[in-house]
Design goal:
The chain has one domain. The chain is about 25% helix and about 30% strand. It has helices spanning about 10-15, 20-30, 110-125; strands at about 40, 45-50, 55-60, 70-75, 90-95, 95-105. It has a six-stranded antiparallel sheet.
Length: about 120
């Protein structure tokens, strides 16, 4: 019986067929390792980084649309951040702005992204 979208998976399954995507997952995981590692939960469609609730989501767009981008990092922030780095920003609920950042290389995970991730993590408890 195939797994549903909400059933547990592994990051390796999420990025199956995308070694660059898996490498990007490992780099984000390492960024979020201090001061304490973020909880990681994978479903069939994405990897979620959690505190009391999810604050960052990494997924492979090529599984759903025609794309050569190995990973998208979606960061849930309590405010709108205007940056040309974001492919798209959505406002799914009051107090939550979802910022979608296409990632091609580990070098894109710089201090600015780390600041956004830290803010998102602090906001998620």
């Amino acid at each position: 019986m195939p797994r549903g979208l909400s059933e547990e998976s592994t990051p390796e399954e999420v990025f199956n067929g995308s070694p660059r995507g898996l490498l990007l997952f490992r780099a984000v995981e390492q960024l979020l390792a201090t001061p304490t590692p973020a909880a990681v939960r994978a479903t069939k469609s994405q990897v979620t980084f959690r505190a009391q609730r999810g604050f960052a989501y990494l997924w492979r767009p090529g599984r759903y649309v025609r794309s050569s981008v190995p990973a998208v990092l979606s960061i849930a922030l309590p405010r709108l951040v205007e940056s040309p780095r974001f492919k798209e920003v959505a406002h799914p609920s009051p107090g939550v702005w979802m910022h979608h950042l296409e990632l091609n290389t580990v070098d894109e995970l710089d201090g600015e992204v780390l600041d956004w991730l830290r803010e998102a993590r602090a906001n998620a408890g």
